[in-house]
Every structure is written in C-alpha cells, then in structure tokens.
Write a structure and sequence with these properties.
Helix content: over 70%
Number of strands: 0
Number of helices: 13
Radius of gyration: 19 Å
Distance between the termini: 11 Å
Shape: globular
Structural class: mainly alpha
Strand content: under 5%
Length: about 260
C-alpha cells in the first residue's frame, strides 16, 4: 500500500515548483526566471491532468459514486478544512465568506485564498465525473503521463528528490500562500532573493510537516476502512489495493495517496 510511482511523484514535484515560482515575489524577472514566473500556471494544468488520469482509472474499475466520493473526500477535505480553520483564527474574514469557500464556490465569488479556485474546479469535476462515467477527452489528456509512467523514468538523485517533494505536493500547494503572506515578511522582505529562497524552503517544509500531521493520517484511515470493507467481498486483498490501476500501473503499484 505504501508503494509509489516515481514518475507520477516527479510530475507532481514539477507541478508544485511551477506554481511556487508563479506566486513568488521575484526581485527580478529577467531570463529564465521571467519565463518561470509567467508560465508557472502550467503547474495547475499538470495537476488537473494528473487528477483526470488517476481518478478516471479508479472510476473505470469501480464506478460506485459513493466509493469515489468517500476516497476523494478523505484526500481533499481534512487539509482544506484545517486551512480554513487556521485562517479563521488569524484573520477577521466575515463568516459568510467561509460558507462560500466551504461549499467550493470560489469560481463564482471572491475566495479567501485565491489559489483555492483550482480546488473548486476539481470538486466540480469530481461531482459530475461519476454521473457521466468519464469522458474520453479528459482521459486523452493523460496519455503523455500514461506513456511516461508505463515507459519508466530514470532513477537518480534528482528524480528521487523531486519524487519525494511530489509526495507532499497537495499540502505544499494548499499551504504555500500562508508562507508568502504571513511567515516570510516577518523575517525578510518577500521581494528579496533571500525572501524568495525562504518562501520556497518554508513552503516545502511546511507542506511536508502538515501532510504528515493531517493528510496522511486521514488517508490511512480512509484506506483502512476501504480495504477492510472490500476484503470482506474478495478473497484477494491485493486486488483491492490495485483496483483502480491501468495494467501498466498495477505492475508498478499505484500509490494509495494518489
């Protein structure tokens, strides 16, 4: 259950680094940094494609909407609710604002945290996806990822390091604006090179820490209950762990934290 696919985690790391660069307050945006800052939004698109690729595979193998919502809920909601709770303690945002963000209406109203618009888009996608049993278009967007995963990836220090960061990409993405807005300015100007470096380092460290405190324990609870229930229906527990994987992914082992 703890096996992960390095290629997917590397893609997650690239995506989150693109987003961090997009949101950083660079002192200078000349050269490659300017390209990074301007095109970092591509990281969110990568996350969208990853979601479509992995979630669609799960739904094809187990089209039950209840199981789907159960698994996605344990992945998304605990860390997101923790973010809203921390925000409520630190800021004076009106209570009505939390209602709209709690219901993932960020695409239609002004969100508390601007980056959560992407969570709203994914939640809407998750809501309609089981009802329409997937679309070939969204699966097609994942063909490049499928080829990369099935074809393998060179394992070295760089890919291992990126893969490690990718494991925690959701929590890093969720919490990085707090580092930029509340933490870095307390020590150095966020528009300085030192501030940018501190922003990257603390965003990754905070994401890793909170993933281990909030996200991963919730996923263990989710998977324990899910696997326990499915084991009662099947004599092969391993088939349950690999239930949502395309054939090439089953050989590698699909991470339970996808």
């Amino acid at each position: 259950m703890n096996m992960r696919i390095l290629a997917l985690d590397v893609i997650r790391a690239v995506a989150i680094l693109l987003v961090l660069g997009r949101h950083a307050c660079w002192p200078s945006t000349s050269g490659p940094i300017g390209y990074w800052a301007e095109n970092g939004w591509l990281g969110v698109d990568l996350f969208f494609v990853l979601s479509g690729f992995l979630v669609s595979g799960l739904l094809f193998k187990n089209p039950s909407p209840l199981v789907f919502y159960y698994r996605r809920g344990f992945k998304i909601y605990p860390s997101y609710w923790a973010l809203l709770l921390v925000t409520a303690f630190i800021t004076n945002v009106p209570a009505t604002q939390y209602i709209t963000d709690f219901l993932f209406f960020q695409s239609y109203t002004e969100p508390i945290w601007a980056h959560t618009w992407s969570l709203a888009v994914e939640e809407h996608f998750y809501f309609i996806l089981p009802l329409f049993l997937l679309t070939g278009f969204y699966l097609g967007a994942g063909m490049l990822i499928s080829a990369l995963v099935c074809g393998g990836i060179t394992v070295n220090t760089i890919t291992k390091s990126l893969g490690y960061v990718g494991v925690f990409s959701y929590s890093i993405y969720l919490w990085h604006p707090l580092v930029l807005v509340w933490i870095v300015p307390k020590f150095v100007p966020k528009t300085s090179w030192l501030g940018v470096g501190l922003y990257f380092a603390l965003s990754i460290l905070l994401g890793i820490l909170l993933a281990k405190i909030i996200e991963f324990p919730c996923l263990k609870i989710r998977d324990y209950k899910f696997i326990k229930e499915k084991t009662c229906e099947s004599s092969s527990p391993s088939s349950v762990v690999q239930a949502g994987c395309p054939p090439c992914l089953r050989k590698s082992g699909l991470a339970h934290r996808c």
